[in-house]
TrEMBL record:
Keyword match Lipid biosynthesis: no
Organism per entry: Rossellomorea aquimaris
Keywords: Transferase
Name the UniProt record assigns to this protein: GNAT family N-acetyltransferase
PROSITE patterns listed in its UniProt record: GNAT
Lineage of producing organism: Bacteria, Bacillati, Bacillota, Bacilli, Bacillales
Length: 304
């Protein structure tokens, strides 16, 4: 067994600073660097890119307390400072042999100990592991589509809604709004807010970051957030988080945040944007905006 500290995931979704100035209906994006341009990716590469958003993070910035379990066909990430299922995950679990599956499951439970954790499993592997998980009190609570969009096929975005303002999160006031909005959307407990604030601030001020957070406001009120991160090779933008407060939903805010990030990805020379999107929620919106499904995932949590 190898225990490594060189990759991780938290429930955050991160990447390189992005600034936006709105003049009329034109989006102006500041660029810091140009990434390698490649014209196309095959299906296998796209699926790998969709999966990679769980672990393709900036190695220079990964906190020392993050623990990672990596074996052949098994990958899990543990954040001992955040005891929730969003920050502690199994993101890969594949084994065709029943004994091997059981042994790996024991390894996972030993690795997490008393920490609550979730499992993001590709559908075929989820079916194989299902009897073991159900016997231990786990159940599928959501299903996600692995979506991707080739950016050279992406149509131009529609003009922005003037009532919606999107800004890159940079100062402490915006970070606090980000924590409050994301905590409401995802149900984070209040006693975790200070840790979330510190972690967001640490990332946003890091010189190594390849991503960022976007705060959406409607009529000057915080309404939603999203984030993005570029892959280590620069070919892919991971659109790996975001949401809109209930009272602001169905008002075009989510679509605005998607188009904003796609514009940025194209300006950087990325060729692919990916997202693991919840079926029946963000997935239908993304499909309307040009994303296609390449994989499906079951989301398992303990429910006893």
């Amino acid at each position: 067994m190898r225990w490594r500290l060189d990759s991780w995931i938290m429930c955050r979704r991160l990447a390189d600073p992005l600034k936006k100035v709105v003049i009329g209906n034109t989006h102006h994006l500041e660029q810091k660097e140009n990434f390698i341009k490649v014209k196309r990716m095959n299906t296998n590469e796209i699926v790998k890119a969709i999966d990679a958003h769980h672990w393709d993070y900036e190695k220079e910035w990964i906190p020392s307390y993050i623990e990672t379990l990596e074996e052949d066909g098994l990958r899990a990430i543990k954040n001992p400072r955040m005891n929730n299922v969003f920050s502690n995950k199994v993101v890969e679990f594949s084994a065709s042999d029943p004994d091997c599956r059981m042994n790996k499951w024991r390894m996972v439970k030993t690795f997490f100990g008393e920490n609550s954790f979730s499992l993001w499993l590709e559908r075929s592997q989820s079916s194989l592991l299902s009897p073991i998980l159900k016997a231990d009190g786990y159940e599928v609570t959501d299903r996600y589509d692995g979506l991707a969009c080739m950016l050279n096929n992406q149509p131009a975005a529609l003009p922005q809604n003037r009532e919606i303002r999107l800004t890159d999160v940079e100062d402490e006031e915006d970070i606090q709004s980000l924590v409050e909005v994301s905590s409401t959307i995802w149900g984070y407990q209040e006693d975790q807010h200070e840790k979330l604030f510190d972690e967001r601030k640490s990332y946003i001020t890091s010189p190594y970051r390849k991503g960022g957070y976007i705060l959406a406001r409607k009529n000057s009120k915080p309404a939603g957030y999203s984030n993005y991160r570029y892959s280590s090779d620069g070919r892919t933008m991971f659109m790996n988080g975001g949401g809109v407060l209930p009272e602001f939903r169905h008002q075009g805010i989510y679509s605005e945040m998607v188009n904003f990030r796609l514009d940025h990805a194209k300006s950087k020379g990325a060729i692919l944007a990916t997202c693991q999107a919840r079926q029946g929620h963000s997935s239908p919106v993304l499909k309307k905006l040009g994303f296609k499904r390449y994989a499906e995932y079951d989301y398992w949590v303990y429910n006893r």
